[in-house]
Amino acid sequence: MAKVAEDAELPLNDERKPEKKQGRHIVIALNHLNKQRAALAEKIAALTEELESIDASIAALSPE
């Protein structure tokens, strides 16, 4: 049996919250939503790039 030093501090309360196991349907839904979000973020990046290109074209063609 292992000895414990007399001055060792042992936690009186474990303040960690117990992890709740998520249901399978929750995990599947989260995976689906995360994939959908990533796909939409890519579309937003592509559209933002296209919009900036159009704005640059408009600025180049507009007389000032």
Description:
This protein has a domain at 25-64. The chain has one helix at residues 24-61. It is elongated and about 85 Å long. By secondary structure, the protein is mainly α. The mean pLDDT is 86. The chain starts with 23 loop residues before the first helix and ends with a helix.
Care to give the gist of this entry?
With 64 residues, the chain is an all-alpha fold. It has 1 helix and no strands.
Topology record:
Elements: H1 24-61
Question: Keywords, please?
Answer:
64 residues; mainly alpha; 59% helix; 0% strand; elongated
**Most strands sheet:** none
Percent range for helical residues? Answer: 55-70%
Can you tell me the residue ranges where pLDDT is under 50 for at least 5 consecutive residues?
Answer: none
Which oligomeric state applies? Answer: single chain
What is the general shape? Answer: elongated
Number of strands: 0
Strand content: under 5%
Query: What is the count of helical runs?
Result: 1
Question: What is the H-and-E element order?
Answer: H
Look at the helices and sheets and give the structural class. Answer: mainly alpha
Q: What is Rg? A: 28 Å
**Could you report the average pLDDT, rounded to the nearest whole number?**
86
Distance between the termini: 87 Å
